[in-house]
From TrEMBL:
<keyword id="KW-0808">Transferase</keyword>
<keyword id="KW-0328">Glycosyltransferase</keyword>
<dbReference type="GO" id="GO:0102970">
    <property type="term" value="F:7-deoxyloganetic acid glucosyltransferase activity"/>
</dbReference>
<dbReference type="InterPro" id="IPR035595">
    <property type="entry name" value="UDP_glycos_trans_CS"/>
</dbReference>
<dbReference type="GO" id="GO:0035251">
    <property type="term" value="F:UDP-glucosyltransferase activity"/>
</dbReference>
<protein>
    <recommendedName>
        <fullName>Glycosyltransferase</fullName>
        <ecNumber>2.4.1.-</ecNumber>
    </recommendedName>
</protein>
<comment type="similarity">
    <text>Belongs to the UDP-glycosyltransferase family.</text>
</comment>
<dbReference type="InterPro" id="IPR002213">
    <property type="entry name" value="UDP_glucos_trans"/>
</dbReference>
<dbReference type="Pfam" id="PF00201">
    <property type="entry name" value="UDPGT"/>
</dbReference>
Length: 483
């Protein structure tokens, strides 16, 4: 009876992102595309993220245009003032497991979206790190689609971990980080130890993050589908490896630009969890074309005072004009009375502009931007690719080390600065990107941007994959997990 009601009711997707800026950004875009295509969507945020969105954006009033959309929230269980930066991600996951997951489970079983409710969930889209979703989807008999918001090339290095352990390649023997990796199919010949996610540098197989990755590796193949924010032409060799692991795969990116092609008119709304300082757009309007280097390390990464000084001197000594996002909390270990050296503050006044959070997509698309010094988060990388802007990669963690290698060595879209930020190297790389090899990099970036845009236009691969995904959800052509 319950199942009958669920199968007779309209398709209703519950989307549950990892409560961090990057995943929330792209899952909201997917949610909007689903609404445009007639699906009911319930978007489950943690209360903390939801409040940040309410404080910094007009997201709630914006989504009122879609009667089939609603937000729901659950607490993440962390104290209000917890910083929720990269170092806190484990605490966040543990706390969600204890507090948020039981509430989520109740919501979709006996609660307002359970099988015997008025609006039963017919499909769950959850972040790939949420292993608990497998059992819950099984319990209510609906398909589970994992949305992997890290890059497929990064995810593939997670999925290769059992093979790396079995072959004795991991944990690394000795300290040579330049040794090539052999047991990551599709990455032979260019992936070095230092290009694997930084957590692979542990010698301890029982390291909690290694155990977390192995757990994710066991759960991913149990889903009915894997959604990727990428496009076929960018990562074809890795996507063909992914196809071997079982579930249907849906490469539908770059999502931020895909949404724009699906919207008949106008742009979408911001989903920033900090207030965007739009004054930088007016400043950019006054700068010459391709003259400004944009500098940002995303929403989670941090740097210490020494790194800050190296990057800052590198920037200033390169003579480039720069727009720099110094996110609150992103610089650790600064004494309160820290005084900015005179030469830095003078040069920054002359050639720099600093904001605490920028409308990044719009900044990258601005004609004045000529390059991006980035921590190589996957959203930032895709936003840069779409905007045709070459990158200097200074990866911090998770998939970012892999992304930096792909940018530098495979896609030839910039330079991978990895594992150093010495001021002389920073200066040299900026000069290369913004001066000596500028034309070459811009030409290459322009080419890949065109390929990215074609993939999300009618008839393109990502466009077709997204249509297929929506059809599969509507027609329920997935087999559901068996209990
Ligand atoms: N972002 C932004 N303004 C900023 C810096 C970042 O809007 O000043 C956005 C950026 O556009 C991207 C997201 O924050 O969509 C960061 O995600 P990413 O995957 O690049 O890195 P993470 O923050 O997860 O490390």
């Amino acid at each position: 009876m319950e199942n009958e009601r669920a199968s007779a009711s309209p398709p209703h997707v519950l989307i549950f992102p990892l409560p961090l800026q990057g995943p929330v950004n792209c899952m909201l875009k997917l949610a909007e595309i689903f609404c445009l295509n007639g699906l009911q969507v319930t978007f489950l945020n943690t209360q903390y993220i939801h409040e940040c969105l309410l404080n910094c954006t007009n997201i709630e009033s914006y989504f009122q245009r879609y009667p089939s959309f609603r937000f729901e929230t659950v607490p993440d269980g962390l104290p209000e003032d917890s910083p929720r930066t990269a170092h806190e991600v484990f605490n966040l996951l543990d706390s969600m497991e204890a507090v948020s997951v039981p509430l989520f489970q109740e919501m979709v079983t006996s609660g307002p979206y359970g099988p015997s409710s008025e609006k039963p969930i017919t499909c769950i889209v959850a972040d790939g790190i949420f292993c608990f979703a497998v059992d819950i989807a099984k319990k209510i008999g609906v398909p589970l689609l994992y949305f992997e918001t890290v890059s497929p090339c990064g995810l593939w290095t997670y999925l290769c971990l059992p093979k790396l352990i079995e072959s004795g390649e991991f944990p690394f023997k000795g300290d040579d980080l330049d040794e090539l990796i052999v047991n990551a199919p599709g990455m032979e010949g260019f992936l070095r130890r230092r290009d694997l996610p930084s957590f692979y540098r542990t010698k301890n197989l029982n390291d909690p993050i290694i155990q977390l990755v192995l757990n994710e590796d066991r759960h991913l193949p149990l889903a009915q589908g894997l959604i990727f924010n990428t496009f076929e032409d960018l990562e074809a060799p890795i996507l063909s490896q992914m196809r071997k692991i079982g579930p249907k795969i849906y490469p539908i990116g770059p999502l931020h630009t895909h949404l724009k092609t699906r919207l008949a008119t106008g742009g979408t709304t911001s989903s920033s969890i900090w207030k965007e300082d739009r004054s930088c757009i007016h400043w950019l309007n006054m700068q010459p074309i391709n003259s400004v280097l944009f500098v940002s390390i995303g929403s989670l990464a941090v740097m210490n005072k020494d790194q800050l000084m190296e990057i800052w001197y590198g920037l200033v000594n390169s003579g480039t004009t720069f727009l720099w996002v110094k996110r609150p909390g992103s610089i650790v270990g600064l004494e309160r009375e820290f005084e900015i050296p005179m030469d830095l503050s003078r040069a920054t006044k002359e050639r720099g502009y600093i904001v605490s959070w920028a409308p990044q997509e719009e900044v990258l698309a601005h004609p004045a931007i000529g390059g991006f010094l980035t921590h190589s988060g996957w959203n930032s990388t895709l936003e840069s690719i779409v905007a045709g802007k070459p990158m200097i990669c200074w990866p911090y963690f998770v998939d970012q080390q892999v992304n930096g290698r792909y940018v530098g060595e495979v896609w030839k879209l910039g330079l991978d600065m990895k594992d150093t930020c010495d001021r002389v190297i920073v200066e040299g790389m900026i000069r290369e990107l913004m001066e000596s090899k500028k034309a070459e990099f811009l030409q290459r970036a322009d080419h890949i941007a065109n390929v990215a845009n074609a993939s999300v236009s009618k008839g393109g691969c990502s466009y077709k994959n997204l249509d297929r995904l929506i059809e599969d959800i509507k027609l329920r052509t997935f087999s559901t997990l068996q209990g």
